[in-house]
Amino acid sequence: MRFPLLDLSLVSLVSQQRFIQHGTFLSEKKAWGISALKAGVSSVESATGPSVLCIGDALMDCIANNEARGWSVEKLMADDSSWTAFPGGAPANVATALCKLGTSSAFCGCVGQDSDGDALKTLLKQEGVNVGLMQRSTLYPTRRVMVTRSKTGDREFGAFYDHRNAHEFADTLLRYNSTATDDDDSSQFTRDLDAILSSTKWMVSSTLSLAFEESAKSVTNIVDRGLKGGAKLLVDINWRPVFWPNTSESEARKSILELAQRAHIVKLTDEEAEWLFGISAAEALEHPDKVAKEGFPQALGVLVTAGEKGASYSCLGHSAQIEPFDVAVVETTGAGDAFTAGFLHSIIGGAELDDPESLQDTVRFAAAVGALTCTSEGAIAAQPTMDQVESFFIHGEKLWTS
């Protein structure tokens, strides 16, 4: 299966090294100080706090095993030996992927006071994610999502474990009252949030939390506070109908757009562009500028991902389509989240949205991170380190197709 490709044979070895160091190419006039910039990013971040705040859900993806490829979700749920639980959830995935690449992050969301919640918190901490804003709930458990797989490895979110309703999970209970006083339970959370936001350059939010009243209000309030503090916002559309069982598609679309149309960067799939605006998937991938113009004219940029068909972007008037990589796909859960992390890692590292060459190489880097995530199981476990991305670009696709 192919994912967006960067051909390093077209650039010099010096340029390759610059790409490896920053996740993007730097022009000759910016070549000076590159080592200092690389070192400065990590040292400044560790001293001042996370650069990216990821807001929303952390959960367990219960993914069909190889022998269960092609099974229905009903058959999958009837046989506990047919699937394996992997830590996931889009914001949590982005947070860990960023840390693996070398960009500091924090996670804000709610998990259950249970073994799954313990495992998620422990894993995020081990990967270097700041979990000071993670809440715990005794009312509902950590969410488990049943993920079916096609014969080729593509996945679909089919249902929730134990036949629970969509709202009966801890992530729906994320609580933040923006008008809290010193007497309110959330006053300490507000202080902790402000401490994180003091260093935050970007916030990342998926839209799944918008399906539930309490978490939707909290995400909106957190985003409001971050934007007022000067942070930028990336929204991942992440349309999953199974999360919205009691809401019409038109109402869900309205709620999603209310948040996404406040974003500086919007990431969506070609199919989500069709669902949101009636732009065909093929046209959205080929003409991302149309998605930007019709859906998000206020945004700095729009990123369109399409799995094995590649990716495209439209940022500040610059648009292009990225051809796919050839990698051996094991499982695709979390690839889009890794793409998001790769993009933000490059931007925070110095890539420029208004420089066509820098922008194109930034999206290529993001696509490489996403593609490599498909070569192993588990949205977080499969995420590449910077060393692995470096190896991929030096040695080429052949090592990742066997």
Write a structural description:
This protein has 402 residues and is an alpha/beta fold. It is built from 14 helices and 15 strands. It has helices at 13-22, 34-48, 73-77, 90-101, 115-126, 187-197, 213-228, 249-260, 270-277, 281-286, 288-295, 335-348, 356-373, 386-395; strands at 2-4, 52-55, 59-64, 83-88, 105-112, 130-137, 144-149, 155-160, 202-206, 232-236, 265-269, 301-305, 311-315, 318-322, 324-326. A hairpin with a 5-residue loop joins strand 12 and strand 13. The chain is globular. The protein starts with a strand and ends in a 7-residue tail after the last helix.
Average pLDDT taken over every residue: 86
Counted by DSSP, the helix tally is 14
Give the end-to-end Cα distance, rounded to a whole number of Å.
Answer: 12 Å
Class by alpha and beta content: alpha/beta
Counting DSSP E segments of at least 2 residues, the number of strands comes to: 15
Q: Could you estimate the helical fraction of the residues in percent? A: 25-40%
Radius of gyration: 20 Å
Please write the string of helix (H) and strand (E) elements. Answer: EHHEEHEHEHEEEHEHEHEHHHEEEEHHH
Query: Are there runs of 5+ residues with pLDDT below 50, and where?
Result: 2-47
* Strand numbers in spatial order across the main sheet: 6-5-2-9-10-11-12-13-14
Strand content: 15-25%
Please summarize the sheet with the most strands. 9 strands, mixed
The shape is globular
